[in-house]
Design a protein that fits this description.
209 residues, alpha/beta, Aldehyde Dehydrogenase, Chain A, domain 1, five-stranded parallel β-sheet, two-stranded antiparallel sheet, 11% strand, globular, Aldehyde_DH_NAD(P), aldehyde dehydrogenase (NAD+) activity, Aldehyde_DH_dom
């Protein structure tokens, strides 16, 4: 069994255990992600400079602080997002209790972009964590130093039974897309977006492009 089968099975078991659903778990993982950003600023700036020649100021503002603020916003609103939402009841259901309870989808695949390789990879992850999902993160191979950094850092800060990072190029991404996911989040070109959507259609997987 390859890492793909083994890793996906492990993450699905992590989701099936129910651990990602609790408010405590989501809060803990988001807090850990903020800690990752705060404790590794120099490494992140170095990686982005090697990949894209971004200066430290640009990286701090558009990558680190932007992503950190997204996580803080999620933390501040998490309880409200998870509470049942009241709905107007039709006459025939006046005696019933009616509400909307948002539920996590399951295993999410996040395919990041090269031009903002931290922000456009971790902000969808923040959404996945906030919604109670597990996730596989596929950073862009065009920003290899940032990709390698995410491969090293994310397992140190996030629950390895619920989150994983897979490096690689088009071949690895294409193979990954043959597996069924519960949601795919992709940022990139229209041409690749069509391929992602076509692969997702095989499993009727909802996609955000």
């Amino acid at each position: 069994m390859s890492w793909y089968e083994d890793g996906i099975e492990r993450l699905r078991k992590g989701f099936s255990s129910g651990r990602t659903r609790s408010l405590e778990f989501r809060t803990s993982e988001l807090t850990s992600l903020i800690r990752l950003l705060s404790e590794n600023e120099d490494f992140i700036c170095e990686a982005l400079h090697k990949d894209l020649r971004k200066c430290k100021f640009e990286t701090m503002v558009s990558e680190i602080k932007f992503t950190k603020n997204e996580a803080i916003y999620a933390l501040n609103n998490l309880r409200g997002w998870t509470e049942p939402e009241s709905v107007v009841k039709p006459f025939a259901m006046k005696l019933d209790q009616c509400f909307i309870q948002k539920q996590p989808l399951g295993l999410v695949l996040i395919i990041g972009a090269w031009n903002y390789p931290l922000q456009l990879t971790l902000t969808p992850l923040i959404g996945a964590i906030s919604a109670g999902n597990c996730a596989i993160i596929k950073p862009s191979e065009i920003s290899p130093h940032t990709s390698d950094l995410l491969v090293r850092l994310l397992p140190k800060y996030l629950d390895k039974e619920c989150f994983a990072v897979i490096p690689g190029g088009p071949d690895e991404t294409s193979y990954l897309l043959t597996f069924p996911f519960d949601k795919i989040f992709f940022t990139g070109s229209p041409a690749i977006g069509r391929l992602v959507l076509k692969a997702a259609a095989e499993h009727l997987t909802p996609v955000t492009l």
